[in-house]
């Protein structure tokens, strides 16, 4: 029998198939199993731990650059659009911690609450994923687009999220207290909308499990890149490639725009495969301006080692 991602955690909890079922999460071994291409460091819960400097550098990468790399690697369903960005114009980058909500089924919620109490979880279900957040995390929740009686956070929980993670959220649904959330520094968040009500007739069925956000399957430990009204979820094993490829494109664009403003080259020369003379000019420009470019100096030095012109 095949099950959807939405029911994944509930099945574990009700069947007792997982030793970690009481925690509503996948076990460390299960998280490792669903992210087999990641070979780096992991968190104690099993999530891939992409390095902080990669996250910081990711902020300068455009959605187009990231999309192109992922598409080229065979990941064609990583982008989701039509969001409302609470802090318009700001960028959100971080490591995913997932949460799955479903419409209320009383007997299931009762069982989940008993499991949560046994495991020492505090307060209402909506606070449980927040208690697990660490610095650099992004709380990504699927609340199935519910509007009225659907907001799973307001400014109190938002303040806690920001304090724990240093980031905002991505919620496939609504929030409340939008004015208060907008005033939280650094709380760049992507939501479907807001509503003055609060969550009712809902239940939290899984934390750190695969979830669906629009057309994207999102895994714990993915890297969020959110800008404008779009969000890309980058598989952790491709995060460094996205950054390095994006940085090279950024440098080439900066060089190309400069030379176009100077009139040294025509658009037809720049907007095509560059000649050896232009590539040589680009290398010389990199060396001359190495300390002033929006890419770490050591990365440019490494790039220059691979260039033969």
What does this structure look like?
There is one protein chain. The chain has 309 residues and is α/β, with parallel strands linked by helices. The protein has twelve helices and eleven strands. The protein has helices at residues 8-15, 28-34, 52-58, 63-72, 106-118, 128-131, 155-165, 178-182, 239-262, 267-270, 276-288, 297-305; strands at residues 79-80, 84-85, 92-103, 137-142, 169-175, 190-194, 202-207, 211-213, 216-218, 223-227, 230-234. Helix 7 (155-165) links the parallel strand 4 and strand 5 (169-175). The chain is elongated, with a radius of gyration of 22 Å. Residues 1-22 have low confidence and may be disordered.
Identify the notable features of this structure and list them briefly:
309 residues; alpha/beta; nine-stranded mixed sheet; two-stranded antiparallel sheet; elongated; disordered N terminus
Biggest sheet descriptor: 9 strands, mixed
Helix content: 25-40%
Radius of gyration: 22 Å
The number of distinct helices, counting runs of at least 4 residues, comes to 12
Integer average pLDDT = 91
Q: Termini separation (Å)?
A: 58 Å
Number of strands: 11
Give me the strand/helix succession: HHHHEEEHHEHEHEEEEEEHHHH
The portion of residues forming beta strands comes to: 15-25%
Overall body shape:
elongated
List the uncertain runs.
1-22
Output the structural class. alpha/beta
């Amino acid at each position: 029998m095949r099950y959807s991602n939405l029911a994944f955690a509930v099945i574990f909890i009700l069947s007792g198939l997982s030793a970690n079922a009481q925690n509503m999460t996948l076990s460390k071994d299960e998280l490792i199993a669903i992210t087999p291409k990641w070979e780096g460091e992991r968190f104690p819960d099993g999530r891939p731990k992409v390095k902080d400097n990669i996250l910081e550098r990711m902020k300068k990468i455009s959605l187009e650059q990231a999309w192109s790399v992922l598409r080229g690697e065979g990941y064609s369903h990583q982008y989701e659009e039509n969001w409302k960005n609470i802090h318009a114009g700001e960028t959100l980058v971080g490591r995913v911690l997932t949460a799955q909500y479903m419409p209320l089924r009383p007997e299931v919620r009762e069982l989940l609450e008993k499991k949560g109490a046994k495991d020492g979880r505090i307060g209402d279900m909506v606070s449980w994923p927040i208690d697990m957040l660490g610095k650099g995390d992004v709380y990504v929740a699927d609340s199935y687009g519910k509007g009225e009686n659907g907001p799973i956070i307001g400014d109190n929980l938002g303040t806690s999220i920001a304090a724990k993670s240093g980031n905002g959220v991505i919620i496939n649904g609504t929030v409340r207290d939008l004015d208060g959330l907008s005033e939280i520094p650094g709380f760049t968040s992507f939501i479907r909308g807001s509503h003055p009500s609060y969550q009712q007739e809902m239940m939290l069925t899984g934390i750190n499990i695969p979830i669906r956000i629009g057309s994207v399957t999102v895994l714990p430990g993915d890297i969020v890149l959110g800008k404008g009204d779009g969000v890309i979820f980058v598989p952790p094993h491709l995060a460094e490639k996205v950054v390095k490829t994006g940085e090279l494109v950024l440098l080439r664009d900066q060089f190309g725009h400069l030379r176009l403003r100077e009139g040294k080259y025509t658009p037809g020369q720049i907007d095509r495969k560059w000649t050896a003379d232009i590539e040589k000019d680009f290398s010389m420009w990199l060396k001359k301006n190495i300390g002033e470019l929006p890419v770490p100096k050591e990365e440019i030095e490494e790039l220059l080692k691979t260039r033969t012109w």
